[in-house]
Write a structure and sequence with these properties.
seven-stranded mixed β-sheet; mainly beta; 118 residues
Length: 118
């Protein structure tokens, strides 16, 4: 069992930065692939980034590649998403997830709102 709690969302001007955190509880955190997903109003949830259990492999959706960085600290049971050069189209509820792969996530957090003002 893994429980996930996101933090770090907020309101930022376009071009600004935010760092999201995902705190996990449960003994299996370090063995799980972790990921960030987002859902904008009126749109379906979309994949943002994922990181392997060791942190050695990372994956990004094209629209955030080069601007966002995913990382994890297994000693702290925490995953991060550093978001730079934010754009209004990045506005969404960001949720973290854990699972066997980026396409097989079975634990989800409640989400944190990110709003980018133009």
């Amino acid at each position: 069992q893994v429980q996930l709690v996101e933090s770090g969302g907020g309101l930022v001007q376009a071009g600004g930065s935010l760092r999201l955190s995902c705190a996990a509880s449960g003994r299996t955190f370090s063995s799980r692939t972790m990921g960030w997903f987002r859902q904008a109003p009126g749109k379906e949830r979309e994949f943002v980034a994922a990181i392997s259990w060791s942190g050695g492999s990372t994956y990004y959706t094209e629209s955030v590649n080069g601007r966002f960085t995913i990382s994890r600290d297994n000693a702290k049971n925490t995953m991060y998403l550093q978001m730079n050069s934010l754009k209004p189209e990045d506005t969404a509820v960001y949720s973290c997830a854990a699972g066997d792969s980026a396409t097989l996530m079975d634990y989800w957090g409640q989400g944190t709102q990110v709003t980018v003002a133009s």
